[in-house]
Amino acid sequence: MLDFKIISTDHNARLGQITTPRGIINTPAFMPVGTNGSVKAMSPHEMKDLGAEVLLSNTYHLYLRPGHDIIRDVGGLHSFMQWSGPILTDSGGFQVFSLSPLRKIKDDGVEFRSHIDGSLHFLTPELVMEIQGALGSDIAMVFDECTPYPADREYALQSLQLTTRWAKRCLEAKNEGQALFGIVQGGMYADLRKQSADELIGLDFDGYALGGLSVGEPKELMYEMVNYSSSLLPPDKPHYLMGIGDLFDVLESVGAGIDMFDCVMPTRNARNGTLFTSLGRISIKREEFKNDAGPLDPNCSCYTCQNYSKAFLRHMYMSREILSMRLNSLHNLHFYLEFFRRMREAVSKGTFMQFRKEMTPILQNNFHEG
User: Fold this and answer.
1) Domain containing 304: what range?
2) 8 Å CB contact between 173 and 126
3) Domain count, the chain
4) Is residue 262 flagged as an active site residue?
């Protein structure tokens, strides 16, 4: 079902492999986000050509549209979206938190209104596992409450206790052949993070995620929680930091022992005309690129940089051509996946700390959002 092994380490950074029935995931790994069953503007074969080994889809969104029963009846999510590699499905806890302000959290589940049509729904841990079973993902996530920031200690404690109770129910409803990860909560309280981790470790999940981070807290506080929480997790299980994609944050978190990441940053920025290059962040809509015949990034081997000028990419963006979204997304995803490849290479060579030292000022000055 899922096997994880550490190949080498460099301080706390880990080079590993997650083996699933549908393929190997080399870690540290970036999981491009295919919320609705596709990575926006990209086809599955393009994702494979870029080197993506695992994609992330979302339980909340696919439950609302088109419905998990429809996906089940056509053979599951892999068949539905024509992706043969591993898929991880988020449980929808964060989406209920972020997209449904009228939600009502109860002990047995969450009542909420759809952000699409306002219809009323009730998600329970059992239903979340049923949905993920119908989707047929390789890795499922437990249903959790994403603790907001700021939250007082009493709320954070109640939230983590609810998450633990729901995690037990998810485990009892676990689908055969599907790995299941627990999600550590506890807000910004170190002792509550430890309590949450201890309770989940006692349930023996296939992997462990850190949730409730990057929800508005200061960056330094987030790093403190990531470093501390990661140290609590079993070293022989994958460690997943949910929803973090700022590359400086990624670099810090790999140094703390995190193995898996997901974020919409590369594709969302691409659609908005913001591109990541070895020379820094570029807004392709700027006037200065109108007559620029040079490539977007002279140091990049992606299809976009090898074939198109900045002038063309600007023209596509300003003309609102669909090709703009595709070429920009392809480049940004290539940039992210190549960055992760370079991190893995550095860990394998024992040079991660040097790589981190060299990349820190570059990322802070050109890419950091915080």
Assistant:
1) 270-351
2) yes
3) 2
4) yes
Is 292 labeled as catalytic in the residue annotation?
no
Contact (CB, 8 A) for 128 and 119: no
83 and 227: one domain? yes
∠ CA 254-258-259, rounded to 5°: 100
Does residue 113 form part of some domain?
A: yes
pLDDT digit string, tens, across residues 259-285? 999 999 999 999 999 999 999 999 999
Q: Which helix (H) or strand (E) holds 5?
A: strand 3-10
Using the 3D structure, point to which of 228, 244, 260 is the last residue of a domain. Answer: 244
Q: Name the one residue in this structure whose structure tokens are 């020379």.
A: 279
Q: Say whether pTM exceeds 0.90.
A: yes
Residue at 262 is within a domain: no
333, 52 contact by CB (below 8 A): yes
Give the bridge partners for 325, in sequence order.
Answer: none
Q: Are residues 193 and 334 in the same domain?
A: no
Q: Are 87 and 138 in contact (CB under 8 A)?
A: yes
Q: What digits encode the pLDDT tens for the residues 79-107?
A: 999 999 999 999 988 898 788 777 899 99
Q: Tokens 């023996």 appear where?
A: 204
Element (H, E) at 311: helix 310-318
Contact yes or no for 2/207 (Cβ under 8 A): yes
Catalytic residue among 138, 144, 262, 297: 262
In which residue are the tokens 């460690």 written?
239
3-state secondary structure of 19: strand
Nearest to 32, CA basis, from 15, 50, 14, 20? 50
Catalytic residue of the set 10, 90, 246, 259: 90
Contact residues for 347 (Cβ-Cβ < 8 A; gap 6+)? 8, 9, 10, 13, 14, 15, 28, 254
| Cβ 11 vs Cβ 32: under 8 Å | no
CA atoms within 13 A of residue 337's CA, in its CB half-sphere: 25
**Is residue 264 in some structural domain?**
no
pLDDT tens digits for range 226-261: 999 999 999 999 999 999 999 999 999 999 999 999
